[in-house]
Description:
By secondary structure, the protein is an all-beta fold.
Amino acid sequence: YSTPSLPFVAISIGENRKKVMGCVNNAYVQGSDIVGGIIGISMEGTQIEKCCNTNEVWTTASNAGGILGQCFGDIKECYNTGYVHANGVTAGGICGYKVTGKLYNCYNRGNISAGEIAGGINGATGLRGYVASYTYNCFNTGTINGSRYVGGITGWGNANGGGSADTNCYETNITVEGLNGGEFSENVWVEDNGSNEGYPILK
Length: 203
């Protein structure tokens, strides 16, 4: 359980500027703002790889994510199965607010809800003045609820400045062949071994 009075709350690391790999969170995480199951906020140059969250992530304000609350770096081969909720603006299954960088080969199976903006993978993406935010080869099966902008992959993408784009991402017809057929796939998707209700899993 994480202390709700602190910003940048996460189980593993609050604010990160390095590489984080192979972290698992099975605990309930709650915070006041920018809350992630693994990392609260990651800065430019950070890479998050092979991490997962299985429990609830909740913020009384904005930017809740199963893996990261807010991200300026890259994310690959991560997944979330926990419920993610923000009382405020933004929540996402993998990242609450993906400002810049690449997010690829990730999936969400948890339900997501936010006061305004909610997405299965990203709550919101892109910000004027930064390099574009891209999402590749991801899938979502969770239920998404928000009052303003809601998306199965991304709730809201900023078309100004750097912009953002989702490529080869799925909510239906989810197959290993499809996920491995996209750019940056690295053939990391394999058939379910019985742990993921028939949906593809990561090596």
